[in-house]
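ESCALATION

Customer reports they have been waiting on this structure for their group meeting. Please prioritize. Original submission:
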Amino acid sequence: MDEVRNPFAPGAGSQPPELAGRDEIIRAAEVAIKRVLAGKHGRSQMFLGLRGVGKTVLLNKIEEIASDNDHLTSFVESPEDNSFAELIYPKIHQALRKLSFVEGARAKALDAMRALRSFASTFKIEMGDMAISVDAEPGVADSGNLEYDLSELFEAVGLAAKAAGRAWTLLIDEVQYLREGELSALIVAIHRSNQKNLPIIVFGAGLPQLAALTGDAKSYAERLFEFPEVGPLHPEEALKAIKNPILEEGEEIDEAALDEIISKTEGYPYFLQEWGFQSWNTADASPISLGDVRVASERSLSRLDEGFFKVRFDRLTPKEREYVVAMAALGEGPYRSSDVADRLGEPVNKLGPRRASIIKKGMIYSPEYGDLAFTVPMFADYLNRTVIGADLNAQ
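Update from on-call: job pushed to the front of the queue and completed.
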């Protein structure tokens, strides 16, 4: 079949041709966005889910909705090696520049620019080409305490947006990588903005441990955010995600082929896109058959092994790899920490730092006290197939 017309888009954050199964989440976000612009309370949201469930796709969709509803938007991703202050500075600068061109908001925008200049100087942010052509405002966002200063900066931005009749939506991906002090400061800033009824709303996305991290940072976080869980698609929604794009291209797929894709992918959106992409390219002609999908499954697994899975495994140290391999060797998770320790022949408490390091890298999480699970779907299968299986074959 014509590869140019292949509708599927396997990639990190790539918008799928059919955003199936997320209507309720998107609708709730749209309502909150419109409420904030109308001067009413809109609750910020943190999307929780494993890798490959489409959290970034949702953030991109929500950014689009916010832009269509008179919100200024700022999208940041939280890597492990940059401070939140460095990440957010250019985004706020960009938003304030836009607000400074609105006649009724110019004065407030310049006030916010001065606060941002103070913030940048205090936290030693390299401004470079983003240098602000106003003087710092002494006593505003310059205490050196991120909780105080970020709150004052958010307030300044919110007042400028309000004067312009606009709102500000901040979108943060990989929130679990924020340091505890940064997450605490973000929560306080959102809380203060809500208390002052400023037109600011935050949408974040992160791994399942994010809910616990926000609670640890500030006890009232559970009342400040909604925490929608983003999981694999139900079979009927997974079917739509595969079938509808194919039909829209004027082609067809056999029911048995659909069933095979849904079974192999377990409804995870990233895997659905990969299997759909490979199945289309494998088929010589429409309809896509069960045989096509079986060939495509081998190609899909090969691509995932070389990219999606391997990239994450390679980030671990040898000792961390030993730990996750021991988990996978136990079969399907979740896994008891004590069982992993027994398999490694070491005391549970001695393995604590190693376990914590793997959690910090976003490879595993604790769904219940004493339990562990992989944040990457099918990762145990990958390890059993490529690491444990390879070791057994070598013996």
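Sent to customer with the following note: The chain has a mean pLDDT of 93.
Escalation resolved.
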